[in-house]
Automatic annotation (TrEMBL):
This is PEPxxWA-CTERM sorting domain-containing protein. It comes from the Bacteria. Transmembrane segments: none annotated. It comes from Sphingomonas tabacisoli. Residues 1-20 form the signal peptide. NCBIfam families: PEP_CTERM, PEPxxWA-CTERM. InterPro entries: Ice-binding_C (IPR013424). Residues 169-192 form the Ice-binding protein C-terminal domain. It holds the Pfam family PEP-CTERM. Keywords: Signal.
Amino acid sequence: MRNWVLAAAAAAVFAGPASAAVITLQSITNNGPNNFTFNYQGTLNPDEGVRTGDRLIIFDFRGYIAGSVFSNLANVTATVENSSNVPVITPGQSDDPNIPNLVFTYTGPNFQTTGGPFASIDFNGLGARSTFGGTAFDAFFAQTTKNTPPAEAMTVSYQVGTVRVPAGVPEPASWAMMLGGFGLLGAVARRRNAAAHVIA
């Protein structure tokens, strides 16, 4: 029974209703200066299952801390890539090739891919760490497998939406350092002006 529950939770990573997929930011944990864990959650809808290779991508995860992407779900691997080749992206959004994308890929056997609809399955346990604690909206992409008969069963389904990701907002300590630096630059500039006037 426990293995089935783990498999169900793992499968649930590629979620969303047919009209609008829903992946949400569950929490942000402050681990110390410039180190925040972003945890994501979602739902596998009744008319969807997963096959090996189905995936969820969260685009443009700013401030990504190398090696921090994680999946607590069985049969779901967690990786990053700077550019994701997907057939569709949320209107008004783009994939910045200079910012890592979080990629969660299902690697297990077919799960609820035919004979649906089934009960929806909620999941959590996916995320990564960032140097930023603020948030902004960016795109996500989910690839699942339709399970409802007859024509849609075992066909690929693409769903897109927006989700909160880290935003480049400096920590209060960083702001203080920046302001102090600007003050120091101002003092140096004033001193140079005064020295120039004395020489003149």
